[in-house]
Amino acid sequence: MLTVDFQRFPITPGDRVLDMGCGAGRHAFELYRRGANVVAFDLDPEELKGVETMFGAMRLEGEVPAGATAETVQGDALDLPFPDDHFDAVVASEVLEHIPDDMRAMRELLRVLKPGGRLAVTVPSWLPERVCWALSEDYHTAPGGHVRIYTRAELEAKLKSIGFVVGGHHHAHGLHAPYWWIKCAVGVDNDANPLAKAYHQLLVWDIMKRPLATRLAERALNPLIGKSVVVYFAKPSAPGTPAAPAKETADAV
Fold this sequence. Notes:
This protein is an alpha/beta fold. The protein has nine helices and seven strands.
């Protein structure tokens, strides 16, 4: 289940791309399929073991274009172990809300991105996230959990203040917000709850089958209760030279 829209964030084969805070690797895998030279970066070494295994399986199954490469790197988002101006593009999906010193992490993203490079950031949308926090203390107080709720304006202002140019945005996963509201209401670890189980089965069915009815429903729900907001940025091509921002786009599935 991808959050970044790769029609709005195109990747060219051979691009060097960082998936910062890759987690289980969903965006890293898509970047690899598109021919990028991918670095999947995360703090959790156990997550990275699974990502590395999947990279190997993709190579064995012939899912990877010739010339594409993929590696995993473990480390801290506040001190990325990469040179300045190293990546053509960076994805930071559902990670900044976990980092207390988010501005330092943002500066690291700017540092490792090449001039003219592009950044895609996704974070939980303000309204769905606020409801989750109101329904459940456990949702946001677990170790490694969310430490803030962004508005889109705040996220854009922070990244703009350090030098990024703001491009387009959209919302994603409108069908997923009610699932998390249910989970928060019945207990975030209560996977046996019948309503939570039923809604989870619906989401799995939707992801696997992608029927027209749920695609249309999500298209309508995304601007209202999309679980994630996705914002696209660019690093200026040269000091003092604005980069051309991505075209502003409306919400879409």
